[in-house]
Amino acid sequence: MSDIRPIKDDRRPKVYIETYGCQMNVNDSEVILSILQDSGYALTEDIEEASVILANTCSIRDNAEQRIWGRIEQFRLQKNRRENVIIGIVGCMAERLKDKLLDSRTVDIVAGPDSYRSLPELIRNVTPETPQMNVLLSQEETYADITPVRMDKNGVSAYITIMRGCNNVCSYCVVPYTRGTERSRDPETIVREAAELFDNGYREVSLLGQNVDSYLWKDPVTADRNVNFAQLLEMVARISPELRVRFSTSHPKDISDEVIYTMAMYDNICRHIHLPVQSGSNAMLEKMRRKYTAEWYLGRVRKIRSVMPDCGLTTDIIAGFCGETEQDHRDTLALMEEAAFDAAFMFQYSERPGTLAARKYPDDVPPEVKTARLNEIIALQNRLSRESNEKDLGKTFKVLIEGVSKRNSDELFGRTSSNKVCVFPAAGHNIGDYVTVEAVSCTSATLIAKLIQ
Ligand code: 5AD
Ligand code: SF4
User: Fold this and answer.
1) Architecture of the domain delimited by 396-451
2) Which of 17, 23, 60 to mutate to test the pocket of ligand 2 (most atoms within 8 A of CB)?
3) Looking at the domain 14-134, which fold is it?
4) What does the CA dihedral 236, 240, 242, 248 come to, rounded to 10 degrees?
């Protein structure tokens, strides 16, 4: 069995890894570290002592990529000072831009999300004259047997990737191009990884996929032993009642009643669903190729709330998609009110080259209108989040302690099952403990609580 924590060894050459983008990228960086540790490297948090510098990148919006270009400029300074340092750009931007990244002459290695097994070889073969690239996408889950080396600070909460890729092709989204088509991972390897984390003191696992509801494992030998997402959730939940299970991301068109009922059956499956709506306008949803309507979405919300009244519901929203009218925008605000989201990630539409939207629809909402609409969406969500927190005042919650509060070292923080951040007095409790608290006040982002036991 490989180490699940970074090896400390001064004699090893050092790798420095910077991670951008989503939770899956965080977990991929842990896969990368596992592969590099097995080939003799050790992690460093000091870029100056690294012989290999990797940036695990994101392409979801243009500003995510602009940030990385800025970082590449800074890596160039490292290179000017230390001739032999190797700079690698990996992840979604590597997959999207391929050899364009090599034109900068700062980057030595370009490796896409499915090619991390070849990193040791790419590093070995690199010379100043011969940069290395591997951007092949896979049809299979390529990392099922790799034990990620956990880089989190607390040892409480860990990510487990259960599927990769996406077959949905939403018209605005670059992910199918950077991460390829859907493939699910063998459930036995997922359960083994979760059980090993639990044995190592972890108390929460988040099952990750671009679209977890379409998780489907087909046994290669006996085709009748298929495992769907609801069944996988149950398998992981049964490891221990003390192990919390979360998951992300669900697609509104795919989240099944079976998943909702499975959640309700197990107290340790957290009462939280991240259900990106993107827009409240049917015209926009159609153009986005989301394959549901606002009414369908609200029907799913009602179903979730009828089975689990205490379930946290969060979403993603895009402001200013192609052709969005003032009325479309109003429809989004109205849907937000009706769904009463607990929290949301909110973005301005950013055209991504090569996507269906970029080819078919002009990006015609003026930037200042996009910004104004986004600000309105954010202001509304702030109110909804505060109202949601105010409803929780006086209620008690079981919280898993994740760390020490940044503002006050006498306070700890953790999350409720519904994914709300709670801050409360430490009173001798430790990171990784469960405590019961009562919410006594709140902001729009946090519940402030007192200990009950
Ligand atoms: N522009 C803006 N936001 C986007 N997202 C995905 N693609 C784009 C884009 N081109 C948002 C969606 C998605 C989240 C991960 O990022 O809301 O759910
Ligand atoms: Fe960014 Fe999407 Fe790639 Fe994650 S999958 S790194 S969010 S582009």
Assistant:
1) Beta Barrel (2.40)
2) 60
3) Rossmann fold (3.40.50)
4) 0
